[in-house]
Amino acid sequence: MAEKIAVVSLGCPKNQVDAEMMLHLLKEAGFEITSSEAEADAIIVNTCGFIEEAKSEAIENILEAAQYKKSGNCKAVIVTGCLAERYRDDITEEIPEADLVVGIGSNKDIAKLVREAISGRAKNSYGPKEDLDLNTPRILGGYPFSAYIKIAEGCNNHCTYCAIPMIRGKMRSRKIEDIVLEAKTLAKNGVKELIVVAQDTTAYGTDLYGEPKLAEILNELSKIEEIKWIRTLYTYPEKITDELIKTVRENDKLIKYFDIPLQHVNGEILKRMNRKGNEESIRSLLSKIRREIPEVTLRTTFITGFPGETDEQFSQMHAFIKEMRFDRLGCFAYSAEEDTPAAEFENQVEGQTKQDRMELIMADQMTIAAEKNEEKIGKTVTVLIEGYDSYIRCYFGRSEADAPEIDGKVFFLSDSPLKIGDFVRVQINDCMEYDLLGEKIDEPA
Q1: Are residues 231 and 268 located together in one domain of the fold?
Q2: Which range marks the domain in which residue 249 is found?
């Protein structure tokens, strides 16, 4: 009988892609994949280690998995992902419940390592970061009609608050032909929506081709007939070119959605973050995008309480956010990550101040989001159906304005049964702060 493996994947979509590659390698090696941790012979916790909150979540999941060594069939708990790469043997020393720690460079050996762990011969493994293969086939862990596609690994930006270059290494772009081949395989297996990800998608190609190639890869992906929606995340403001804006505007398969992690607008703070630009350049970019693509959805993230942030600098960012009225916005209190330059900066902002500033921005954004949703009442949107909620007796899905997991949903009624994964047109009749309510109409999607 095949040994059963459960995989718990935490953190960002890029980490999810890594988990899906490991699922393929495990299945190819003869393991049975199960969603039941109680039945699993081994449990892999694919961790995030980006900020303190993510590390706490990872440790909590490791400890929960370890409980199945007492109450279930589990013989080994394996830790993979960013936390495993970043803290290595520290995990074994401080969390003895973890039987094996696997760095990202050893993901390719996951089947052999898991088998050894189950037999009690676990030995931590850390291959070079560059050994993380970017072209391994995958078993999708989410919906069969929507998939992330990672176009590059690592990052060269070296923002002073960020540990990603230390964890993931230098940026490595995939070849265009390899990305297209993977996308075609995903499409043949039923994927209709591609979500393009990397640490910095706008930097894609600069290491491999000597110039950015995001617009080109998006155009190539759009030629795949079965793919209907292509969404891009993690586009850096200073690298959004006129060519990219034009490509998104003119290509019907490219969703009119820009995810731009701004982090701040004060020039001095941005410089200390080792990021480019200032309020004037950011304002100019956002105005250009909205002018060129009036129907665009703008998503961003900000950080409050970066070391040295004064009341005036925070107020500048706060006023900018209220004026710009972003469609989607996330805000995080600064987390001082060990071994990053910013953690050693003077004038660290007090914890409660950081939290208060974050909560103020998110409270204002909730009001903005609700007002923007009210503006959609009476309009019609295309929705990708994700499921049926038997409790409230309606279907739900996402519109073009909604990325998976981070944005809202559209809940809607239908007079006839619908197929999950299809596109339908929905008339919006009501809304909540972040979600829309409506009814399917007979109109081609």
Answers
A1: yes
A2: 146-374
Structure tokens at 209: 């081709």
Element (H, E) at 429: strand 423-431
Indicate whether 337 and 396 sit together in one domain: no
| Helix 311-324, helix 351-374: angle, nearest 10 | 10
- Contacts made by residues 388-394, CB under 8 angstroms, sequence distance 24+: 388/418, 388/420
* 63 and 210 both lie in a single domain: no
17 occurs within a structural domain: yes
Q: Residues 6 or more apart from 41 whose CB is under 8 A from it?
A: 3, 4, 5, 73, 74, 75, 76, 118
pTM (2 d.p.): 0.94
In a domain, 287, yes or no: yes
DSSP one-letter code for 49: -
Q: Which of 353, 374, 395 corresponds to the end of one domain?
A: 374
Q: 183-230 pLDDT, tens per residue?
A: 999 999 999 999 999 999 999 999 999 999 999 999 999 999 999 999
User: What secondary structure does DSSP assign to 379-413, as a single string?
Assistant: -EEEEEEEEEETTTTEEEEEETT--TTTS--EEEE
